[in-house]
Automatic annotation (TrEMBL):
A molecular function GO annotation: nucleic acid binding
Protein name (database record): Integrase catalytic domain-containing protein
InterPro entries named in the record: RNaseH-like_sf, RNaseH_sf
Organism per entry: Physcomitrium patens (Spreading-leaved earth moss)
């Protein structure tokens, strides 16, 4: 998607300083949520850590298809 297309879609382009997680709080919070969900799935399902990658795929799928107040 070109920058002009994103402007038409209403997507705001913001620049950040590289390697500063403080500037990207939402992303850092979501990363934390994903890691905690993976740990929880592996622990409660009594899975071996070899299933880490499969858990990432499952959690990613669930979070991508879960309703969010940020979605229109």
């Amino acid at each position: 998607m070109a920058i002009n297309d994103s402007i038409i879609e209403g997507i705001k382009h913001e620049l950040i300083i590289l390697y500063t997680p403080e500037q990207n709080r939402i992303l850092e919070r979501n990363n934390y949520k994903i890691i905690e969900a993976i740990r929880s799935v592996i622990y409660h399902a009594h899975l071996d850590l070899a299933f880490w990658a499969n858990s990432i795929d499952n959690i990613d799928y669930i979070l991508n298809y879960t309703y969010s107040c940020f979605l229109p």
